[in-house]
Amino acid sequence: MFTITELSTERINRIVTEALAFANGKTAKIEGEVFCSNLFFEDSTRTKTSFDIAERKLGLQVVPFDASNSSVNKGESLYDTVKTIESLGVNLVVIRDKKDRYFDELKNIKIPVINGGDGTGNHPSQCMLDLMTIYQEFGKFEGLKVGIVGDVKHSRVANSNAEALRRLGAKVYFSGPEQWFDEGALINGTYLSVDEMIHDVDVLMLLRIQHERHDSKMSFSASEYHRKYGLTKEREKAMKKEAIIMHPAPINRGVEIDTDLVECERSRIFRQMQNGVFARMAILKEALENQGYAFK
Ligand code: CP
């Protein structure tokens, strides 16, 4: 699984349903000895750890891979690295890389490759856990209003979520600094100021400022960003009674969101992380079943 675009709506719904079943106590164990490895060439806490836990819960043998001391540092290409892992007998890999669409180089790899995030492009497993979190709350997607606020241009989460949510019948609005919003994003949503959307959205999805993907320094301070685009205590009070706050994390506390709101009643930020394990179990199980592996 590389992108949301490649997934049919039926398949998205199937993965979310399976993830919800895992969250409600369903278990599954793979039959036989199956190896997997998580190849992360860009930093991660949540995605890598939750894939690791999901794999162990499904009974997979997790083969450690540390990019910082791998032969990539001797100039080995991504393709040769993955081909090597495949040749050694690993049956599935999860990959994160800084490069957009790194997976285009991997067409000759036979084992399933799950995208753990590619540059500013796609983050399909984050999308699945976000959909699952929204569904747990509202029991539907159709007709929901979702505001995605922040560094939209550099966010693979915004790309994947906006596409999936629109296809599932939600209305998507974007906000944040206009220089971080481009024509491409407009295709999947409408631009509003934070104060225009705050009263109306069912889901407020905040995004981290992706400093590592910016060419130049931010033209405003963190406090200025918070005042203009962040979730302040005043803005939180203006939200609808049932509306929820989401953030894929890591969080810049006091910038995208007031630190006291990170764990407030309507925040689902740590629920998202919990759901990450279940969503990834569903993704892994589906990928392996498609290859003929059986679970009991
Ligand atoms: N949300 C997310 O992808 O977090 P990590 O970068 O820690 O994996």
Task: Produce the secondary structure layout.
Blueprint: H1 9-23, E1 35-40, H2 46-57, E2 61-63, H3 78-87, E3 92-97, E4 113-118, H4 124-138, E5 145-149, H5 156-167, E6 171-175, H6 183-186, E7 190-191, H7 194-197, E8 203-206, H8 222-229, H9 233-238, E9 244-246, H10 269-289
Parallel strand pairs: 1-2, 1-3, 3-4, 5-6, 5-8, 6-7, 8-9
Helix pairs in contact: 1-4, 1-10, 2-10, 4-5, 4-10
The structure holds phosphoric acid mono(formamide)ester (CP).
State the share of residues found in helices, binned by percent.
Answer: 25-40%
- Helix and strand string, N-terminal first? HEHEHEEHEHEHEHEHHEH
Shape descriptor reads: globular
Number of helices: 10
Q: How many domains comprise the coordinates?
A: 2
CA(first)-CA(last) distance: 23 Å
> What fraction strand?
5-15%
Would you kindly provide a written description of the structure presented here, covering whatever features stand out?
With 296 residues, this protein is of the alpha/beta class. The protein folds into two domains: 9-123 and 274-289, Aspartate/ornithine carbamoyltransferase (Rossmann fold), CATH 3.40.50.1370; 124-268, Aspartate/ornithine carbamoyltransferase (Rossmann fold). The chain has helices at residues 9-23, 46-57, 78-87, 124-138, 156-167, 183-186, 194-197, 222-229, 233-238, 269-289; strands at 35-40, 61-63, 92-97, 113-118, 145-149, 171-175, 190-191, 203-206, 244-246. Strands 7-6-5-8-9 form a five-stranded parallel β-sheet, with helices on one face. A four-stranded parallel β-sheet has the order 2-1-3-4, with helices on both faces. The protein starts with 8 loop residues before the first helix and ends in a 7-residue tail after the last helix. The structure holds phosphoric acid mono(formamide)ester. Phosphoric acid mono(formamide)ester binds next to helix 2. Residues 44-47, 117, 126, 248-250 line the site of phosphoric acid mono(formamide)ester.
